[in-house]
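User: My collaborator sent over this chain with a note saying "see what the structure looks like." That's all I know about it. Can you take a look?
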Amino acid sequence: MSLAAALHKKSLAWSEAHGYTNSEPGAVATGSSTQLKIPGAVKGLSKRSPAEFTDPVAAVREMRRVLRPGGQLHFVEHGRAPDESVRRWQDRLNGIQQRMAGGCHLNRDIPAILTAGGMRVTDLDTYYGKGEPKAYGSLYEGRAVVA
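Assistant: Without extra context I'll predict from the sequence alone. Here is the result:
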């Protein structure tokens, strides 16, 4: 299973365990990352993936738009590593990664993107995925609310 598939599976399992199901109106969004086909006022979103968005801040702003007051954004995302030596490798590999993985970026600062998009990160865990090369497996997992 690829890292992206594993993260998506983990995100869905977490959402279901916390009462966010696909039977809820608007639970499954379609459309581009900057124009979700949701009128607004959903209680939670599970997103994928700012690493692949052309304009990640605009995508987060759109997620913010559809959240109702008190709604939460749940995320599991790979991004900029905490260790300088790993970050240097991410920077070196990023161009190749983008070509091979549909525009996916290895080195995006996920908390900064969420903040710039108008969200406030309330819970955040950072770690390296088990069995993944550190340059590809630096993970952010958490929740954010409208700032």
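A starting point for your reply to your collaborator: The domain at 3-16+31-146 is CATH 3.40.50.150 (Rossmann fold).
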